[in-house]
Amino acid sequence: MKISKTGLIALIVLRLAIGWHFLYEGLVKVANPAWSSKAYLLDSGGFLKGWFEWMALNTNVLAAVDFLNVWGLTLIGLSLLAGLFSRAGAIAGMVLLLFYYLSHPAFPGIEYMFPTDGSYFIINKTVVEFFALFVIFSFPTSHIVGLERFWASKNNRPV
Asked: Mind listing the pLDDT tens digit of every residue in the chain (159 residues)?
């Protein structure tokens, strides 16, 4: 499938914007040694509420969740920004966003301690970013603008 120049620019900008969002969220957590996902997990709702609360209350599991969250966000962001392993980064980002959504689904009747940006009905910003990552995965651009371009030219991949 041939993508127009405007479409290609839109896909690249989308990849960079989401990469920045993930990297920023990760670095904010890296820079704060006191950060923990405990309060967020304890505020979970929906049918997996008990599982997320168990994560928050188990010290070893919480330490692993915090580590994976902080470094997952950071590495996914770097991957998307640099255009290196961006399809893997998009999948990893989708998995992380799925966990966020399952922890705090936008279902009617569920109220959370932390405020949201608006009233949602099933679809929220997490779901929108999930599908944006699906678009990035489906239409990769790193071989055109990104570090993967260097490997594309060595493997005679059309640029």
From this structure: 788 999 999 999 999 999 999 999 999 999 999 999 999 999 999 999 999 999 999 999 999 999 999 999 999 999 999 999 999 999 999 999 999 999 999 998 888 887 777 668 899 999 999 999 999 999 999 999 999 998 766 665 554
pTM of this prediction?
0.91
In the block, residue with structure tokens 């239409």: 139
First to last CA, the chain: 14
* Bridge partners, 122 (sequence order): 106
Reading the block at residue 106, the tokens are 């936008």
CA distance 145 to 63: 36
Q: Long-range contacts of range 113-117, CB-CB < 8 Å, 24 or more positions apart?
A: 113/39, 113/43, 114/40, 114/43
Distances (CA, A) of 73 to 65, 120, 138, 156: 12, 24, 20, 32
Decide if 87 contacts 36 (C-beta within 8 A). Answer: no
Neighbours of 15 (CB within 10 A): 27
CB 41 within 8 A of CB 56: yes
